[in-house]
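Example 374.
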Amino acid sequence: MTELQSTPPSDRPRPKEWIAAIHAYVPGKSTGTDGRTLIKLSANENPLGTSPAAEAARHHAGAQSRYPDPDSVALREALGKLHGIAPSHIVMGTGSDELLNLAAQAFAGPGDEVLFVRYGFSVYDIAARRCGAAPVIAPDRDYGTDVDALLAAVTPATRVVFLANPNNPTGSYIGREEIARLHAGLRPDILLVIDQAYAEYVDAADDDGAFVLASAARNVLVTRTFSKIYGLAGERVGWATGDAALVDMLNRIRGPFNLSLSAQATALAALGDQDFVARSRDHNRRERARFVASLTALGNHGLRPLPTEANFVLIEFSGALTAEAAYLGLMEHGYITRWLPGQGLPQCLRVTIGTAEQMDAITAALAQMAGRAA
Ligand SMILES: *Cc1c(COP(=O)(O)O)cnc(C)c1O
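Predicted structure in complex with pyridoxal-5'-phosphate:
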């Protein structure tokens, strides 16, 4: 029998099996079950909004009838200057999302494995499946990244390792030595993608050394985004840096005009307003510490804030008040947070750091619910 004969006829286009097996990304919601608009602390957006300079730039971006600069030259030059990276080692993406997908697509395919930690960013699973590769999950260590477990999960079929640092949805972070140990333990033909979407929020004494690694090694790609601390989630701007050969591959397969006119203009202006970035970082540091302290005080009710270096806190619920009840209760109070049963975390709730007033309200509501449930 030929292959053609063994395939039953179909009355519609047949998707690739691995595409049909994908569960679509579930975005953070902003409306409650009753359709009410809620205060959204479910998508790790910047509670301070956007830099006024970026807002202004949006209105002077240029002629909309013209294609944008396909190479985002001005933006890459500004990024290079800020971070001490040659612009030729920077590739822009429609959000870092596009770059994560392109990295998997360029280096993995059917028969290959793409590795990441349990409770890793949900886009990694989609990125692996999109190109026909098998997602492989390494066990966590108390919700955090376990370098030994990742290295133990490497097989001859491993092509790409994704690591968000800090990680979403856990907030966990590993330092420079651990990242170096992970890299040193990987074969040189395995691409290590370090996703630094929350790097600007990290409070740890040392950064994780990812940029240095990306400039020295031939198998490390670092991704960054304008969606979080720069407050430009709506414009879809991300970037990656790494060896020239890696950047070259991503440039070949990205959308030729992937960054719109307004995306390039607003990101450039946002980059120029580092005061806004500093204010956002200070705000997050202050409110995150306050929120974590209040949650820790609710420890006798079974609430546990997991260690976080990001702009959100993952709370584990092990007492009478469940994560689901807290999620629904907070919705009653007008707040939408992220309950994550779909990611294997039905016992956890992720709360984005909002304004001081919002965090006070959330804290009071959680204390009230925990007290009532006891
Ligand atoms: C939010 C987030 C991103 C950013 O995605 P964009 O496409 O740049 O908006 C990337 N990685 C992680 C882990 C994130 O949480």
